[in-house]
Amino acid sequence: MSQAQVDIQRLGNEGEPLVIIDGFSGIPGELLERGRSATYQDAGAMYPGLRSWCEPDYLDRNRDLMFQVLQQVFGFRQGISLDVSTFSLVTLAPEDLAPIQRIPHYDHASGEVVAIMHYLLGPETGGTAFYRHKRTGFETITDDREAAYNAGLEADEAEYGMPPPEYCYGDSDRYELIGEVEARPDRLVLYRGRQLHSGVIPNPHELSTDPKTGRLTINMFLRGR
Length: 225
Fold this sequence. Notes:
This protein is an alpha+beta fold and 225 residues long. It has helices at residues 28-36, 63-72, 146-160; strands at 5-11, 16-22, 41-42, 49-53, 80-90, 113-119, 128-133, 175-181, 187-192, 197-199, 215-224. Helix content is 15%, strand content 32%.
């Protein structure tokens, strides 16, 4: 088992938890090689790149710690299931991004979904940033906020036009940066899927479809209650 170090933070005005675990697996090189030898396909309309199945067996290397975090921080005491586990490559050039890919997003409005981002590379590949939507003040999008948030996006478009063709980062007319996690090899991060966030892409024109040179991470979604 790795000598993992845990840092628990609270983000913004709403105080949603952000858990950072450094040295989670103890085998970042092995995981990197798995990802580099995987076969990738288009990830769909929301994700700006490619994905491939990632066997989640390595989570067992720190199983007790993972369950402790999910129970004590996220309140999952009745059961936990894995929805998604993928190697992920951000590949799209900024000019190819769909409008929805140019702004922060949320993964799922339910509080039962926790996102996991496991970084395999260093800070030069970019981490994850968290945001507040200025017009609504929302930092998380729940079921009862979705209608108001969508109306806010429409109002943003009417006032500011379409988002520029670029990966979002930092403060803008629409959003305020409220937190950021730097990428480090074998750093695993957990946060609720309802939080507004976006990948940090420091060098978008260096993105690659080759997993040997591209921005390779592991992404998972857990569902608990």
